[in-house]
Queue: 2 jobs
Job 1
Amino acid sequence: MKDNVISETDVTTHKTKIAARNVQVYYGDTHAIKDVSVDIQDKTVTAFIGPSGCGKSTFLRCINRMNDTIDICTVKGDILIDGEDIYDSAVDPVQLRAKVGMVFQKPNPFPKSIYDNVAYGPRIHGLARNKSELDDIVERALKRGAIWNEVKDRLHAPGTGLSGGQQQRLCIARAVATEPEVLLMDEPCSALDPIATAQVEELIDELRQDYSVVIVTHSMQQAARVSQRTAFFHLGNLVEFGETDKIFTSPEDPRTESYITGRIG
Amino acid sequence: MRDLFNVGSTTLLVAVVLILTVLAYGLVRSRVMSSVSGDARKLHSLPNYYGYNAAMLTAIPALFVLAIWMLVQPMLIQNAVIDMIPQSAVNEGSSVNLVMSDVRRVANGLDAAVQSGTLDADSARDMDVTATDVRALLAGTGVALGSDVTPEVLAAAQRYRSMEVTGRWLMIAVISVLVLGGMFIALRTARADFRARNTVERFLLGLLVLAASLAILTTVGIVLSMLFETLNFFRLHPWQDFFLGTTWAPNFRGDSDLSILPLLWGTLYISFIALLVAVPIGLFAAIYLSEYANNKVRAFAKPLLEILAGIPTIVYGLFALLTVGPFLVKVFGRGEDGLLGVDWMSGATSVLTAGLVMGIMLIPFVSSLSDDIINAVPQSMRDGSFGLGATHSETIRQVVLPAALPGIVGAVLLAASRAIGETMIVVLGAGAIARISGNPLEAMTTITTRIVSQLTGDTDFASPETLVAFALGLTLFVLTLGLNVLALLIVRKYREQYE
C-alpha cells in the first residue's frame, strides 16, 4: 500500500491552519457530526477517510461554510482559520469562500470557455486591474492546475468539451485562481479513470507547497499516497487523527483498523 | 326514448355487442382456466389476458365496422335517392341539397307517424300525395314542412325509408356475424399456450399509434382546409395587395382593400408590449421562486401564480376594457382632468391596454417554463460558483442564467406565439381600427380580431371579404408555427448540454 508514496512525511514543523473545536452539525433532527475537534496544518495534505455517510464531506463543507446554502443544516462549535472564528457573525461567508477554495466530486466546469471558467473568480473578486493581468492570472492558474499545455491553444473553447480528467484539473485551476489559502477537495477523483487520477494526485502533491489541502476520499490507497495526515471518521465521530503512516500501519483504535483492513465500511 | 330500444337502433346494437363482449371475456377466461384445471401457473399469460383478448376480438371489428357503416350508409342512400328527383322539382333559388333535406324530413316524419300509431307501416309505404294531405299529417306528428309535399319528394322519401330499413337489417346481420365470428375465434384460440399477453400488448400499441396519428391527421386536416380556402381567396384577390398593400378596408359590397400589413403591425406591436411586460416580470418571478424562495413560500406562491394561467382570456378582456383601459385614459387622457394633464388618449381601447393585459396573462407562462428550466441547471454549477466566493446574485447572473438562457429564449418564443395568436383580449382591448402607427395610445387591430369580424354575421363564403379570413388564419398559423419550431429547436439544443 505504501509502495508508491510520492511525498515524505516531514510535516510536523508546520503551523496549524484550521482549528476545529467541538463541532456539531445537524441536518434537521439528524446529528451528522458529533463533537469533532481537529487541527489541520498549513502546507500539508490532510485526508478524511471513512465509510459512506460518516460525515467526512459534511465536515469538509463546514470549513468553507458551504453548508449555509442548505436550509435545514445547523453548525455548532468553533472552526478557526488562522485563529479567526469563521462562524463569527462578522465574517462574510462569501469572502471566506474566496479564501477557502473547493473542488467537487464531479467536475463542474461552467458552460463557458476555459478562459472564462478560470477568470470567473478573479473577476468576481476584482483581482486583476486590466486584461493582461487577468491573462497572467489565468495562465498561472492553468499552469498550477497542470493543464496549461493541453489547453493553451484553445482557451476560448468551452470548458465542458474537455475530458473528465481535464475538466477536474480545470476546476482545480479555477479554484487556485482566486489565490485561496486552503483548498478543500471532496472526492476529486471519484469520477476519473486511473490515469486522470494519477495526474490529479500528482497535482495535489504539488499544491501542498503553497496551500493547506484537505481531501475527502473513499480510496485508502489514495489517502496513503497523497496525504501526510489522515483523519478517520465513523458514524459522525472523528475516531482517529494522526500521521498517515501511523494510521495505516499501527492504528490505535480498533475501528480504524477494521476499516483499513476492510472489515467495516 | 322508445326509439332508443327499438329493434335495430344503434344504441341497442352497441349495447348487445358490449354485453356479448363481457360474455366472451368471462367465457374464454373460465374456459382457459378449466383447460389447466385451475392452475394459472400453467398458462402462458395471466388468465385476465385471455379474457381481454377475447373481448377485443369480439368488440373491435364489430364496433369498427359499425362506425364506418354509420358514416357510409347515409351517403350511399342519398346518392341512390338523389337521382329520383328530377331537375324540374328543384325550385328557383333552391338547390338539390335543400330538396334532399326535405326528403329526409318527410322520411323522418313518416317514421315518427308509424311509431306513434297514426299510420301503419303499409300505408306509409304506399301513401300518395293525391289521396292524403301529407303535410297536415306530418304536422300532426310534430314535423313541420315549409311547403306542400310534391309527389317526387314523397316517392323519394318512401324510397329513402325502405333503403334505410334494408341497410339497417343488413348492418345488424353483418355486425352479428362479426361478433359471433370473433367470439368463435376467441374460443378456438383459448388454449394454455396461446400468447394472449403478447396479443394484448400489440393491441395497446395499436391504440397508442391510433391516438397519435389522429392528432397529427387533425393538424394536417386543419392546414389543408385553410389552404384550400386561402387558394380560393387568392383567385379572387391579388396576393400582392394582400401581402404588400397598406390599407385594410373591407367593404361587403365588393372592391375592398384587404392587406395584412396593418393587421400584422398591430399584432406584432401588441405582442411586443405584452412581452415587454411578461418577460421581465415572469423571469424575475421564476428566479425568485426557484433560487430564493424557501419551500413554504414556493409551495404557496407557485400555484397562486399559475392560477393566472387558468383565467379565461375573455375575463382578461373584460379586465382590459373595464379596468385597465379607463385607468390609462385617466392617466394619459382627459386633458386638464387627467392625472398628467395631457390629452394623448381618447378611448379605453389601445395598443397599450391590450398589451399590458396580455402581458399579465403571459406572466405565468414565462415564469412557469423558466422556473422549470432554471431548476434543471445542475446544483453542481451553483456549488462551483459559491465555492469560488460568488454571491447568490452573481451566481444567478453569471452561471445559472447563461446556462439556462437557451431554454429561457425558448420559453419567451412560446409566449410570443401565444401572444400573436391571442384573440379575446385584443377583441375587447385593442380596438378595431386598422392602421400602422407608432403611438401605443391609439387603437389598433390585430389579425385575430379581423378574422372574428370577417366571419361573424351574415356571410357569403364566396366573397373575398370572407375568404380573406382564411388567408389571415393561415398566415397566423405559419407565423406561430415558425416561432414554435424555433423555440423547440432551441430548447432541444439546450437539453443536450447536460444529458
Job 2
Amino acid sequence: MKIAIVDYGMGNIKSLESILKHLGAPEVNYTKNPESLFSSDKVILPGVGSFGEAIDNIEKRGLRAIIEELAIERKKTFLGICLGMQIMANSSEEAPDKKGLGLIQGNLTRFPHSKLTKVPHVGFNQVEFGNDSTLFKGLSSGCDFYFTHSFKLTNNSNIQKGICRYGEEFIAAFEQENLFGTQFHPELSQQNGLALMDNFLRAKQC
Amino acid sequence: MLRKRVIFTLIYNDGNFIQSRNFRHQKVGNIKWLENNYKFQKISYSLDELIIINASKENKNTQDFSNCVSKLVEKVFIPVCAGGGITSMKDAEVLFNKGADKIILNTALYSNPELVKSLSLKYGAQSIIASIDYKKINNKYCVYINNGEDNIELPLDEYINHINKLNVGEIYLNSIDKDGTGFGYDLSPLSFIQNKITTPLIIAGGAGNSSHLIEGLSHESVSAVATANLFNFVGDGLPKARREMIALGVNLAKWEEYSKE
C-alpha cells in the first residue's frame, strides 16, 4: 500500500511520517508530483499555518485540480488533518477572499474568546462519535485527542461527524464515503491517535 | 471539556541536558544518557506535551540543537515545541523541519517583534509559544530576556500587553526565583495578570512534586503546568504523578496504556 502526503509547503510532517512508519505503512511519499499522487492508494493532506497561505500554496503548485481528481473522481481514501481538514471545506473567516477546496460542505469561523474559552483551543479534548464510524472504530466515544486551532468547522448537516465542545459544539472529525477529516492531530494524540491512524490505514478503498 | 496539560521542559546546553536552578546550569547528561537512564519514550506517555529549550549561552548552534530535537521526537507521538535563540525565519524553519510542532520564543518577543509577527503569519498563532522569564524584586514583577540576564524596562503586566499584540498562541510564564527549586510554583502574579492574558497560559518554575502540579492546575487561569525538574520527575516521577492526579480527579487527558511496540 502506498500512502502519499501532499507536499504543499505547509509545516511539519515529521510526526505524521513517523506514526505511519511506526504503524507499518510500507511506502510513504511526501510529494507534489502528480504521478506519484495518482499512483498512491491513500492520500493525506496535512497542514499547519493559515488558511490563506495554504490555499495560495495549493494554487501556486497547481494542486487544486489534482486534489479534486484524487478525492472526487478517483475516490482515493483521503484524510485531511488540522489545516488540511479545514481547506477541504468551502471557506474560512481567516481568509474570506480565498476559496477552499470545497470537497465537503462547511465553513470555518473563529472561536469567540471568553474567560473560559481562550483562543486558540489548545490541548486534549473529548470527541463524541457514532459507533458506525470507520476512523474511530474500537475507540470509545468521548476519548481524548489533541487540538491546536483558532477556527472551527460548523454548519454541515448531512455528514457523519465527530463532535467536540469548546464553548460551543464544532466538527472535530468527519467521514463521507472516501473523504475523512480530523481537526485534531492524531499523530500527536498518543495511543488514541495511533488507533485512529491504524483505522485509516485499514479503511477499505471506495 | 478541554483538559488541562502537564508539560515537561527539557533544557539543552551545548550537547547536554541540564538541571537549571535559578538559571544556573548543572550538567546532567547527553541524549544517549537521557535515553539509557530515563527511557524518554516511555515517559512521554505521561505527558501532554514536550518543550525543548536551547539554553546554550555561548554558542547557540541551531543545527546541532535541531538534530537533537529530531532524535528525541522519534516515536514520541505528542506535540513537541522547540526554541531558544531563534533569531530568524530560517532558524524556525529548521526546527519545524526537524520535527517541532511549535516553537517557543523569548528574547525575540522584545527585540524583534516583527519577526514574531512574520512567524505567526506563516505558521499560525497556535504554533508560537511566548516565553516570559520574570523575577519578583521589591514586590514588582520584572521581566528578563537573554537567558534571564537582561532586565527590560517593561514590568510584567505591560509586557503581556505588548505580547498580546504579536498574535502568539500561548504564554509560558517562568519564575526565575522558583526555577529548579522544587518549592512549588509562584502563583502570586496570576490574580493581577489573568485578565490580561487572552491565550492559554502555561506556568513554569518550581514544581517539585505532584501536589505542586495540582496546585498550579487548580487555578482557573492556568491551562498547563510545566516542569523542567529532571531529578524529581524523570524516571518514575511523571508516570506516578499523572496516575495520582487522575485518581484525584484532576482534569487530564486519558489514553490507553501503550501496547504496540
